[in-house]
Design brief:
alpha/beta, GMP Synthetase, Chain A, domain 3, Metallo-beta-lactamase, Chain A, seven-stranded mixed sheet, 35% helix, globular
Length: 632
């Protein structure tokens, strides 16, 4: 049935069901939801059963929004909010979201802003029409988050138009006849980097991740020119597991070449991937490389992103439902579960996972409603890939740092801005607080400060211990005074030339660019200093060369002798080691009938595949790029 006829029937049904004193101004599909606009939102709210009854009757997700005509203009609304909420609530920011008729109010004391039994919220809604949401103000303001929210407000009309287009596409119905499910490996199979997979059914095409191999000079992008991918306009949805560039780096490129559909990911992933993509453009400019896309395409990505929380289930195609689950890898990282058809098939893509509680996150989720197949990473899937537990890794780092500082040396830790840096920060702060390390400044250079600010915006994504510290004890280790921001070239030179002991965390984590190179050039030839690797070093990177023991290397165009102590502190990785990967499979519930391995060097993929098959009797395969496998 044509979509207009479907909508006509729905409108007729709703108008017949809703009492005549509730004025309905519009009924439209917006994304996966059926949105009812009303000039009487309060009357609708009084009849909560009405929405449930309609949703059951129409078999649709229904949202009720106030008609734009009953919303106070933004300037006046903000003024009234500030008049209603007491000053002691300390409002730090007010964000309006016109596409959903909500206003987000950040306050240092949320309880004061909400009022007794929500009295102030009710007053705000009555006065301005907007639905208020009070959230705790993050202790570190994030420019990235603020810019994204500001931009979304600017393009709210375009976003509503996009959601309506998407709604019509989503509700187009499914075809009759044979049902099938298959996936095609487009990148990141028997390799690390450029992760990308196409999940297809007879009615839908979904792209999972679209990353770049940052350290590759030739095969940097996935096989987006494969015939089943093109034209890009035929793709229903793009799902991003997490923000690292090897998973999200080329998402904006899709908009450059004609994609105009939705991006599904978690809220923190949206913000962090924008931060990393903008930095990637800056690095390309600094190195005089041609960037594959521009900031305009990143803005299109923001406009088209539909963020989710863990546990949210949403229709992303006529026959595919998506649920995001905790992956434990970095902030907002998700294992993506796809429910296909009416119980036809269930497949999950692990993304990068950490199956161990860390200083920052809880372990990856292993329980799913149904699971016939799993696509799983194997970065550390080889026989020798056994990492020490977090506690041992932390103690080893403490000992290295202590020995170096006591000799009067500097400690240089190359880190990825997201995840590893915050974890190392928490460990170092902990040992300084316990007087197990001398209290010296810890300098954060590169994107680390901004990335840390984004972590403070989303405390609900951190582990329970950290949340308890932040919310109940009023103490945030990421905000400790010992951390110093490096925000200029002059400040960097000052730290480099200073003779006092210090610790520097700087990007990039694999020594393939970024401010870390300046410190390395300056400090590499002094044996009092120490270079500590805490994350994965990909083959071909400068980090891997130094890790292997190279004594002479070229650092940003300069030949440098490596006289400083070089240590690798295993156990800080955001990836599961071999034992954790096997435990993850062991604890999966239900057990999948088939596992497909990716995101690992060829030998590790094959080794882990053989072990899983032997140990658990599960059919396991290590696909090659461009291979397709049919499930149904």
């Amino acid at each position: 049935m044509p979509i207009e006829d479907v909508l006509r029937e729905i409108r007729s049904e709703i108008n017949a069901t809703i009492p005549s004193d509730i004025r309905i101004s519009d009924i439209e599909f917006e994304g996966a939801e059926l949105v009812i606009y009303t000039k009487d939102p309060d009357k609708f709210a009084e009849q909560s059963e009405l929405v449930r009854h309609l949703a059951k009757k129409l078999q649709k997700r229904i949202t009720v929004r106030p008609d734009p005509s009953v919303l106070e203009d933004i300037e006046t609304a903000e003024k009234k909010i500030r008049e209603i909420i007491p000053e002691e609530a300390n409002i730090t920011n007010i964000y309006f979201e016109p596409d959903v008729g909500e206003v987000i109010i950040e306050a240092e004391k949320p309880g004061v802003a909400i009022g007794k039994k929500g009295s102030l919220l009710n007053e705000i809604k009555k006065e301005i029409g907007w639905a208020p949401k009070i959230i705790r103000a993050p202790p570190m303001p994030s420019k990235t988050v603020q810019d994204i929210r500001k931009y979304l407000r600017m393009v709210s009309d375009e976003r509503i138009e996009f959601l309506r287009r998407l709604g019509r596409r989503l509700h187009r119905g499914v075809s009759e006849g044979e049902k099938w499910v298959r996936m095609t490996a487009l990148g990141g199979y028997r390799e690390v980097g450029r992760s990308c997979t196409l999940l297809s059914t007879q009615d839908s095409k979904v792209l999972i991740d679209c990353g770049i191999a940052v350290s590759s000079s030739s095969n940097g992008s996935p096989y987006l020119n494969a015939p089943e991918v093109l034209p890009l306009e035929s793709i229903d949805a793009v799902v991003v597991t997490h923000a690292h560039l090897d998973h999200s780096g080329l998402v904006p490129l899709l908009f450059k070449y004609g994609y105009d559909g939705p991006i599904y990911t978690t809220y923190p992933t949206r913000d962090v991937m924008v931060l990393l993509q903008m930095d990637y453009l800056k690095v390309c400019a600094d190195e005089a490389k041609k960037a594959p896309y521009s900031s305009e395409h990143i803005r299109e990505e923001i406009k088209h992103t539909i963020p989710l929380n863990y546990g949210d289930t949403i229709d992303i195609a006529p026959d595919i439902r998506l649920t995001m689950h905790r992956a434990g890898h970095i902030l907002g990282s998700a294992t993506c579960h796809f429910h296909i058809g009416e119980g036809l098939f269930n497949i999950a893509f692990s993304g990068d996972i950490k199956y161990e509680k860390t200083w920052l996150f809880s372990a990856a989720a292993t329980h799913f409603p149904r699971l016939e197949a799993l696509v799983m990473e194997s970065t550390y899937g080889g026989k020798q890939d056994i990492q020490p537990p977090r506690k041992k890794a932390s103690e080893f780092l403490r000992d290295i740092v202590k020995e170096t500082l006591e000799k009067g040396g500097k400690v240089l830790i190359p880190v990825f801005a997201i995840g590893r840096s915050q974890e190392v920060m928490i460990v170092l702060e902990h040992y300084m607080k316990e007087n197990e390390l001398p209290s010296v400044p810890i300098y954060l250079d590169g994107m680390i400060w901004e990335a840390t600010a984004i972590h403070t915006v989303y405390p609900e994504y951190l582990n329970a211990d950290l949340r308890k510290k932040i919310f109940q004890e009023g103490e945030n280790p990421l905000m400790a005074d010992v951390f110093k921001r490096v925000d200029s070239y002059d400040k960097r030179r000052e730290i480099i030339d200073d003779t006092e002991p210090a610790i520097v965390l700087a990007t990039s984590g694999m020594l393939n660019g970024g401010p870390v190179m300046e410190y390395l050039k300056a400090w590499a030839e002094d044996e009092k200093n120490t270079l500590v690797f805490v994350g994965y070093q990909a083959e071909g990177t400068l980090g891997r060369k130094i890790q292997k023991g190279w004594k002479e290397v070229n650092v940003a165009g300069q030949d440098v002798k490596i006289e400083m102590r070089v240590e690798t502190c295993e156990g800080f990785s955001g990836h599961s080691d071999r034992n954790q990967l096997l435990n993850y499979v062991k604890n999966l519930s239900p057990k999948p009938k088939r596992i497909i391995l990716n995101h690992g060097e060829e030998s590790k993929c094959l080794d882990l595949a053989a072990t899983i098959h032997k140990k658990f009797g599960i059919k396991t395969i290590a696909l090659k790029n461009l291979e397709t496998i049919r499930f149904k």
